[in-house]
Amino acid sequence: SLSLPSSMHLIQVDSVQRWMEDLxxxxxxxxxxxxxxxxxxxxxxxxxELILSSQYSTCDNLQLLLKRAWIISTExxxxxxxxxxxxxxxxxSMTVRVNCHVxxxxxxxxxxxxxSSEEMHQLEKLLVDKxxxxxxxxxxCLQTEDEEILTSMKSCVNETLTAVAQYFGQLIELVxxxxxxxxxxxxxxxxxxxVMESAISxxxxxxxxxxxxxxxxxKEGGVVxxxxxxxxxxxxxxxxxxxxxxxxICCVEEGMHQLEKVDGILCLADILTDNSHSEATxxxxxxxxxxxxxxHLTFTQHLSSFLENMEExxxxxxxxxxxxxxxxxxxxxxxxxxxxxxFDTMACEILLQLNAMKILLAACSDKHIVxxxxxxxxxxxxxxxxxxxxxxxxxxxxxxxxxLLMEMLFEKSSSGNPAEVAACERxxxxxxxxxxxxxxxxxxxxxxxxxxxxxxLIKLCRxxxxxxxxxxxxxxxxxxxxxxxxxxxxxLEDSDFQQLVKPRLVDSFLLCTNxxxxxx
Length: 520
Known about the structure:
GO molecular function, one term: cytoskeletal anchor activity
Number of strands: 0
Number of helices: 26
Domain Protein inscuteable homologue LGN-binding: 11-55
GO cellular component, one term: apical cortex
Domain Protein inscuteable homologue C-terminal: 68-520
InterPro entries: ARM-like, ARM-type_fold, Armadillo, Insc_C, INSC_LBD, INSC_LBD_sf, Inscuteable
């Protein structure tokens, strides 16, 4: 029998599950098309039994609403495409379907929300009326074949489609804001741990839907409410979930501004330096630090309060790396440290004083702690950023760091997963960068030559498959090779010297990238 790779099997299961979930919404809609959206029963209680959402919790209802919204959004996009091609029959049938989905979505939402606003009811009415108008328009287009009439009607249909999309977007925005407000109200007003935990869980599921929802939650005071929890000892058992939630919201600018306003960094520093907290709490606090110091964010400049607390945060993170009981805890703590080394050069000096190099190198020899390319990526990022300091060379030698860097030049993905492959490339590239920087020191260069780093760097330059065709790995390896060649000219054959060291770096780079063709 044919055995599928596990990743392919997962994809198949996921798509089938997705189809099964969407199918209920689709068939529910088709039933409504046949019934022309007429209720089966006048009695409200009986009608409620027919609604999908009555069997679910608030969190499930929100997921159902988001799925329904996703289907409507997809259908509206497809209607616009069919309209462009004048496929009137398809346009009409899809318009009827959207009309039914909109009715279903509004009915479902109104069964599980108790206090929707007048503004929401008005928007619902506007959307329903515009959908009916849309269906009437497209039906009229089916009844004529006159090209001139169809052309003039097409602009009306387009305008109506735009209006439907606009009202729909506004309604979803209002609904999600309303739900975020409800959940935040539960967090702020309830003294019950169970209710608060449930509300935090509901909010967290919303943040997983994307940055837009994180912005809504931040705008509605989510960061303020969550830090209020983190400042009360009686809610200690909720700290890990609350901090995880904060890490999600702080991926958007609004979240960061709120964090700054409530002096969130000081709170995080207090949590990290308080030894009475659990490792899980410390790890989640490290995750928030990793998020707010991410070099990919463009809005970290205002984190002035971070610099004030940096020394104690860095100290606590190094301690967390040293005492980590699992690979996940080490990954979060080291990711935070790696980002901080980009954020401010003073961090590297603090790390040096804290003996961090030795701690990180020791952790790398423990396969239970540094167990993935992602963790090695964090470690080698810290080493690369620290290697600009002259004192690092002796630390690397003492901790057997050159051997580790050599091993990192062989980093290969075992799963073929694209994210893991990218992490392996980053490990190779940063290992080469670190070697190039540290080889200013003759002792490091000598150790690298003895460990056969030069032949490995040559192979990475000459064999595209060894570096997964990565240009950034190639540039870093050429730079490291040139630095080692200066320190140890005898380690290279003449052809390698003539092609990889003697020319301008850009010429060697072009030569190596063109080698891909000769291997085919």
